[in-house]
Amino acid sequence: MKISNTIKLATLALTLGLTTSSFAQDGAMEMKKDKKMMKKEKMMMETKMVGGAEMYPNKNIIENAVNSKDHTTLVAAVKAAELVETLKGEGPFTVFAPTNEAFEKLPKGTVETLLMAENKAKLQSILTYHVVAGKVSAMDLMKMIKDGNGKAELTTVNGGTLTAMLKGKKVQLKDAAGNISTVTIADVNQSNGIIHVIDAVVLPGM
């Protein structure tokens, strides 16, 4: 009888131990998820400095971009291409935003030519090649690159493809012509998407 009771008590203790361990593990996992979610939410609410101006997550892509001194050429191009209302839209959009210096790397006279009214369709094609539908954060990009064994294919609004890669800890983009641009400021959150600042203009196959 004593042996039977002892066995019962041992079984109960073991069951309780396993249950407590399971609860502890579940609790730890939930806490980890909560912390990850809080970190993500905090990042989404952060303002970042771009071109000497604060970028506010509660403003849309255009409302923020017009304040960046580093993106006056991009804003002028977006206006010339009549894409302002599109990028003010609900989205969400992921925009790889070239700086003024990035545009200056293009052959002399290229920007001026693209801004001409008769070249609007070509300008639209180039600008929409910098836009991906949906909100793709740097973390998302890195996971896609890892899952793709070092490369991730991004389909742009233009219909073309950008190839995302990693160089060290920085994300790089390769365009249709094989040109490389690097993300210099990542995860600039907007009310209708996200901006990643890049140091070179990416060009679709012409």
UniProtKB/TrEMBL annotation:
InterPro entries: Adhesion/Biosynth-related (IPR050904), FAS1_dom_sf (IPR036378), FAS1_domain (IPR000782). Residues 58-202 form the FAS1 domain. Residues 1-24 form the signal peptide. Pfam families: Fasciclin (PF02469). It comes from the Bacteria. Keywords: Signal. The keyword Signal applies. This is Uncaracterized surface protein containing fasciclin (FAS1) repeats. It comes from Maribacter dokdonensis. The lineage of its organism: Bacteria, Pseudomonadati, Bacteroidota, Flavobacteriia, Flavobacteriales.
